[in-house]
Amino acid sequence: MRSKKQNSCGFTILELAVAIAIAAIMAGFAVPSIVNWQHKSRLQGAAVNLAGDLEMAKMRAIRENSTVVVQFAAENYTIFVDNGAAGGTAGDWVRNGGEALVQYRWLPAGVTVILSDLTLADDRLRFNAKGQPMDVMSPEIIPLQNRVGRKNVMLTRLGTVRIQ
Hints:
Elements (H helix, E strand, L loop, with lengths): L12 H52 L3 E5 L3 E6 L19 E6 L5 E2 L10 E4 L5 E2 L5 E7 L2 E7 L5 E3 L1
Antiparallel strand pairs: 1-2, 1-5, 2-3, 4-7, 5-6, 7-8, 8-9
């Protein structure tokens, strides 16, 4: 009689359980750093978008030869031309009538503007027809924060935008 050989292909349940446990432990160490990286990336992205949008608002003020307003809220901001078009009131810092909307941007999830740290009148910033910020005598700081940190977008009285 011939003896039958047993095939030893595959894994035992014990080997599979050990491999899954090791993978779970490694994932447990990796996930918090990935989440932390994601929050830092959202905060940096929001600061870069805000800086770019402020530059765009300056250019739009020059192009339109009019005042452009940036209005901040905790989780978003609005940029519009405050020229009194189509029945609006020019220079009132409020978008009314047919005043053109330039940009409306929601901040990424978890990122907010710290309105209590703003020194802007009514949480609004204006650029004149020369592209210079109005009513900014010293560098204006627009603080953004989320659960991992804070980024400041700085605007000088000459209109230079920087991220700190």
